[in-house]
Amino acid sequence: MTYHRPDSALLAKAETLTEALPYLQRYAGKTFVVKYGGHAMGDPELQRDFAEDVVLLKQVGINPVVVHGGGPQIGSMLKRLGVESQFVNGLRVTDAETAKIAEMVLAGSINKDIVGWIGQAGGRAVGISGKDAGLVLAEKVGVRDPDPLQGIERHVDLGFVGEPVAVDRRILDTLSAADIIPVVAPVGIGADGQTYNINADTMAGAIASAMGASRFFLLTDVAGVLDKQGDLMSDLSPADVLRLQRDGTITGGMIPKVQTCVAAVQSGVDAAVILDGRIPHAMLLEIFTRQGAGTLVSARGR
Ligand SMILES: Nc1ncnc2c1ncn2[C@@H]1O[C@H](COP(=O)(O)OP(=O)(O)O)[C@@H](O)[C@H]1O
Ligand SMILES: CC(=O)N[C@@H](CCC(=O)OP(=O)(O)O)C(=O)O
Q1: What 3 state SS string does 54-91 have?
Q2: 3-state secondary structure at position 18
Q3: How many CA atoms lie within 13 A of 233 on its CB side?
Q4: Which residues partner with 144 through β-bridges?
Q5: Cα 59 to chain center, whole Å?
Q6: Which residues contact residue 106 at a Cβ distance below 8 angstroms, ignoring those fewer than 6 apart?
Q7: Is-contact 172 150, C-beta < 8 A?
Q8: pLDDT value of position 154
Q9: Which residues are marked as site: Transition state stabilizer (predicted)?
Q10: Binding residues
């Protein structure tokens, strides 16, 4: 019998799988919370890659929980309807009409699209919002807005913008135990029954903390946190984050992202990673290979 050595491309595939082995062993049974940002939803190919990654995680025994955004999609809908919209420190000022439209786009449209993509990739997902089964109890947010011209801080009323004050994880546990991937829209309800629009990063962070997640990924449309020269910073501690926010390196939509990462690692999540969702299979590369991508926020670094 002649012995044929497999060609190098085939061997490389086997090596990739064996490289993944220690990670597969380490992460089996753990919970990963994945925040899928509106900007990362890009084109159908990236959507398919994302769904495949999530299904693969579930298949290898990890419990993924997806929390999604949809800021740009809410923006287009508001524009179509002729409703003005404004952001303060990365948060959308939300009046009653905007809250209704945001909920419609997030929980009614994007949420079900993602459920569909996961289904197409061979997984089973159920889409819910923070309102379902009392998942997220929200409270109205008040924000200090530093006014660069006046050098003062003023309080801004953001309207129906909420922050999670309590997470009841039972619905997520129930779904995960039934081999169903939960997909969560960032909408919550107040004790008074009021619907709140919640920044998706903040929502995902609260869920990651409540789940005691091992990993928390935030998929966005930049390589990670960039310094003033535009270079990627691959490791940040909570103290670094504070400094970069104070010196104006981190602004806009990156503010809730890094704040959420810090809160998550301080409440027991092992590590939070801001990842470039424009890279195909960004999550799998981060989880199962030696090359970390994006910016990792942790108390101790990579
Ligand atoms: N230091 C920084 N590094 C990277 N991005 C930054 C930084 N400061 C501000 N940003 C902005 O934050 C944006 C990401 O936040 P956001 O638009 O809310 O994304 P998503 O929709 O994925 O949540 C980037 O596209 C960039 O414009
Ligand atoms: C209060 C607030 O800002 N809510 C966000 C919710 C969606 C979101 O956060 O989406 P991304 O993750 O895609 O940015 C909004 O209205 O845009």
Answers
A1: HHHHHHCCCEEEEEECCHHHHHHHHHHCCCCCCEECCE
A2: helix
A3: 18
A4: 155
A5: 20
A6: 68, 69, 70, 74, 129, 185, 186, 187
A7: no
A8: 61
A9: 35, 257
A10: 70-71, 92, 197
d(CA 190, CA 137): 6
Ligand 2 centroid, distance to 91 Cα (angstroms) = 7
> For the chain, what is the radius of gyration of the CA atoms?
20
Token digits of residue 63: 């419990």
Contact by Cβ (8 Å): 272, 261: yes
Q: Is the dihedral of CA 206, 207, 213, 215 positive or negative?
A: negative
Contacts of 245 (CB under 8 A, 6+ apart): 255, 258, 259
Which ligand approaches the C-alpha of residue 187 most closely? Answer: 2
Nearest to 203 by CA among 71, 113, 53, 114: 71
CA of 253 to the centre of ligand 1 (A): 5
Domains of the chain: 27-42+51-297 (3.40.1160.10)
Task: Report the distance separating Cα 256 and Cα 252, nearest Å.
Answer: 8
Model pLDDT, residue 153: 56
Residue among 216, 220, 240 to mutate when testing ligand 1 (max atoms within 8 A of CB): 220
Q: Beta-strand (E) ranges in the chain?
A: 31-36, 63-68, 87-88, 91-92, 125-129, 136-147, 152-167, 181-185, 187-189, 195-197, 215-220, 235-236, 271-276, 295-297
Which parts of the chain have pLDDT scores under 50?
Answer: 149-150, 302
Residue-wise over 96-134: b if at least 16 C-beta within 10 A, else e? eebbebbbebbbeebbebbbebbeebebebbbbbbbbee
The whole-model pTM stands at 0.92
